[in-house]
Amino acid sequence: MSDENLAERIGGLVAMSSGDGRLDTLMRLTCGRALSLPPLPMEVDLIDGGAEHEPLVCTFTEQFATDVSGIGDNQRKLLAQALGDNVFRTVVMMFVADLVPRVWAGFEALGLRRHGNGGDIAWDHDSDPTDALLNGFLPAVARLRGLDPVTTEVVRLRGAAQHNCRLCKSRRETNALDAGGSEDLYGEIERYETSEKLTDAHKAALQYVDAMIWTPSQISPELATGVRKHFSEDQAFELTLDIMRNAANKIMVSLGVDAPLVTDGTELFSVDEDGQTVSASK
């Protein structure tokens, strides 16, 4: 386990803002309703005087939470027109509103005690959530090394397929390949329940990934028992945060900027000691 307090980092993301308190509240309420989970805490109550583009943002948020691959070009165009230069920051906070309730639900289901979802919130209007997420939280998660590289990659590829991230699906992590990963093995992910090549631990992890993505309010005791059977508490904590880290591809997919960097075959990459993604030659 890294000595970085990742639960506190999650709390820090929750305290940040898109710059529009009403939109933050609407996005959090929309995600909570879409996921059948308690929404994140909200600083601003909704009162009369909403902006004309708020229904558009709510519709975009709901699609982001339920199935990001269903967002169309017209939705992207309208969102960009409505929000202008603040569109990316808003989608980052949309991601926080969507993913943090899932993480807390996963922690609860697995009996972990690192929720980070209690107590008063010191609202942060000064920090940049884009920097905090992309340059702070996500690399910190990537620096965790409790899971073996193949499990980490199998989990990543399942999330890539479920969110239909073209870039993520086109990439292969070299440490996982060196540890025994292969296209034959990865080809089994789509039908992992009946696979004879994936281990029982892989299958338990993939069941958890699917639940976190599609039914986070319904993580069954049986599923949680399977995860705890194959993974230590620290590994289960890392697995949960890996699902969130991988799901950052939803930001790219929602904005239509997830095109692969290769036109044929796969792009090789590695995650360095700093948690940064480093491209490698094919």
In DSSP terms (H or I, runs of 4 or more residues), the helix count works out at: 14
- Provide the gyration radius in Å: 18 Å
- Record the strand order, biggest sheet: 1-2-3
> Terminal Cα separation, in Å?
32 Å
Which series of helices and strands comes N to C?
HHHHHHHHEHHHHHHEE
Morphology: globular
What helical percentage do the residues reach? 55-70%
Organism: Mycolicibacterium rhodesiae (strain NBB3) (Mycobacterium rhodesiae)
InterPro entries: AhpD-like
Protein name: Carboxymuconolactone decarboxylase family protein
Task: Provide keyphrases for this structure.
single chain, 282 residues, mainly alpha, AhpD-like, 2 domains, 3-stranded mixed beta sheet, 14 helices, 3 strands, globular, Carboxymuconolactone decarboxylase family protein
Description of the molecule:
The protein has helices at 6-14, 21-35, 54-67, 73-83, 87-110, 129-142, 149-163, 166-169, 174-178, 183-186, 200-214, 221-230, 233-246, 249-255, and strands at 171-173, 267-271, 277-280. Strand 2 (267-271) and strand 3 (277-280) form a beta hairpin. It folds into two domains: 6-141, no CATH class; 147-280, AhpD-like, CATH 1.20.1290.10. Helix 2 (21-35) crosses helix 5 (87-110) and helix 5 packs antiparallel against helix 13 (233-246). The protein is built from 14 helices and three strands. With 282 residues, it is mainly α. It comes from Mycolicibacterium rhodesiae (strain NBB3) (Mycobacterium rhodesiae). InterPro entries: AhpD-like. This is Carboxymuconolactone decarboxylase family protein.
